[in-house]
Design goal:
Elements (H helix, E strand, L loop, with lengths): L3 E4 L3 H14 L2 E7 L6 H5 L2 E6 L10 H11 L3 E3 L9 H9 L3 E2 L4 H8 L1 H10 L15 H11 L3 E9 L2 E6 L2 H19 L4 E5 L5 E9 L5 E13 L2 E7 L6 H17 L4 E9 L5 E7 L6 H8 L3 H9 L16 E8 L1 E2 L5 E2 L2 E2 L3 E2 L6 E4 L7 E2 L6 E9 L2 H14 L1 E2 L6 H8 L2 H4 L7 H8 L7
Parallel strand pairs: 1-2, 1-4, 2-3, 4-5
Antiparallel strand pairs: 6-7, 6-8, 9-10, 9-12, 10-11, 11-14, 12-13, 14-21, 15-16, 17-20, 18-22, 19-21
The structure holds adenosine-5'-diphosphate.
Length: 454
């Protein structure tokens, strides 16, 4: 049985894992960088070890130091959270070889799904629809152009090692393709140390709809419904909700089945997400699998009442999932707004600094996952998300009304945040009517005066 867990992460997700462990009577070890001494997860974990300097490369990405800390503190397992080393197959392998349980899938599954071209190929062979495009990475510009012409413009060039919306370029014709192909390769090389790219059809104004998967080590694979994550800026999610206002019961069923098929094809274990794009006609296409817990997991938790972090710990302990697909109830609507320390009126420039007054909303149907508090200084070294506001209710209108009410109560003084932007979106008829596609944010920003979200 797992008795002590090292949390190889920071911020709100580290705190989320501390909380789940505490409720299960599991001890926690926080590892932190010199810039995170003040963070709540460091203060609330049972033990904490500083593993290096502020830059991620000197701390949260240092597998060697994290494993040393695990050995010194004698932990049974490591929870990687999201980002950092969470989808690093080598790190999962290192944990395995040191006899420390990696709370996540087997390194083999991470490797298979971490290469987007291999992932696509694997699920396509299992009968899951994928976006038309090159079979695997393209070897040269000449080959890439041929593929682009064959599938027809516009196309999207994507890094096989991609993540976080980076290394993706859209081309509308041969001329722009020649330029974007090289930009994508360079970006991918810089960001991921791997310049390999593949080409696929650019789906115009799709919805991003993903399915949460739980799989145990005994062959049971279940889905916990979808999350609609169409509200994105530069391919980065801002708002997520479940159920999707777009899906019909029939489409939901078909996509849920396909998601389970895709996870099974990866011989998957633990929590994961199958991401799809859905076009206006309701055609859906697999784009990738995330082999870790996701930022937006609370949306699913509040819809289904299932604690995903606790399930991850149970699965890592070798336990069977003690419910079946038919037992999962989807009787609530939940929505999440990502609260970022950014100035939406100034092109979302990061706004690190010291928070003066901090007051988070509460009351019925409200959840706040955040590691910050009054007087906390946001370090400039990491991503700008400082919290997640989740609201839920019996239906979409109730959840959205509650979100607007909660955003109005949320006070974060001293820095700029995305709270006013979220309020403006919650009042926008296109969003309220459930019509947002991945093109929504760009259209919204173009037609909305900036004083509405400052
Ligand atoms: P990442 O791993 O970097 O997050 P994804 O493959 O998950 O990249 O894609 C992120 C987002 O990029 C999608 O949600 C969607 O908005 C856009 N996108 C990706 N592939 C396509 C495509 N073929 N057509 C249109 N948009 C796409």
């Amino acid at each position: 049985m797992i008795q002590k867990v090292l949390i190889a992460n920071r911020g709100e997700i580290a705190l989320r894992i501390v909380r789940a462990c505490r409720e299960l009577g599991i001890k926690t070890l926080a590892v932190y960088s010199e810039a995170d001494v003040q963070s709540l997860h460091v203060q609330l974990a049972d033990e904490a070890i500083c593993i290096g300097g502020p830059k991620s490369a000197d701390s949260y990405l240092r597998a060697d130091r994290i494993i040393s800390a695990a050995e010194i503190a004698d932990v049974d397992a490591i929870h990687p959270g999201y980002g950092f080393l969470s989808e690093n197959a080598k790190f999962a392998e290192q944990c395995e070889s040191c006899n420390i349980k990696f709370i996540g899938p087997k390194s083999k599954s991470i490797r298979m799904m971490g290469d987007k071209a291999i992932a696509k190929d694997t699920v396509r062979k299992a009968g899951v629809p994928t976006v038309p495009g090159s079979d695997g990475p393209v070897e040269s510009e000449g080959e890439a152009v041929k593929v682009a012409r064959k599938i027809g413009y516009p196309v999207i060039i994507k890094a096989v090692a991609g993540g976080g919306g980076r290394g993706m370029r859209i081309a509308h014709n041969d001329v722009s393709f020649a330029k974007e192909y090289h930009v994508a390769r360079n970006e991918a090389e810089k960001a991921f140390g791997n310049g390999a790219v593949y080409v696929e059809k650019y789906i115009e104004k799709p919805r991003h709809i993903e399915f949460q998967i739980l799989a145990d080590g005994h062959g049971k694979v279940l889905h916990l419904g979808e999350r609609d994550c169409s509200v994105q800026r530069r391919h980065q999610k801002l708002i997520e909700e479940s159920p999707s206002p777009f899906l019909t019961p029939g489409l939901r069923k078909a996509m849920g089945k396909a998601a389970v098929k895709a996870a099974s094809a990866a011989d998957y274990e633990n929590a994961g997400t199958i991401e799809f794009l859905v076009d206006a006609k309701g055609n859906f296409y697999f784009i990738e699998m995330n082999t870790r817990i996701q930022v937006e997991h609370p949306v699913t938790e509040e819809c289904t009442g299932i604690d995903l972090i606790k399930q991850q710990l149970r699965i890592a302990d070798g336990l069977k999932l003690d419910f079946d697909q038919g037992d999962i109830k989807f009787d609530r609507h939940a929505i999440e707004c990502r609260i970022n320390a950014e100035d939406p009126a100034r092109n979302f420039t990061p706004s690190p600094g010291t928070i003066g007054l901090y007051y988070s909303p509460g009351g019925n149907g409200v959840r706040v996952d955040s590691h910050v508090y009054s007087g906390y200084t946001i370090p400039p070294y990491y991503d700008s998300m400082i919290g997640k506001l989740i609201t839920y209710g019996p239906n979409r209108k109730a959840a959205l009304d509650r979100m607007y009410r909660s955003l109005s109560e949320y006070l974060i003084r001293g820095i700029k945040t995305t709270i006013p932007l979220h309020k403006a979106i919650m009042s926008d008829p296109v969003f309220i009517e459930g019509k947002a596609t991945t093109a929504y944010m760009e259209e919204f920003m173009a037609r909305t005066p900036t004083d509405l979200f400052t």
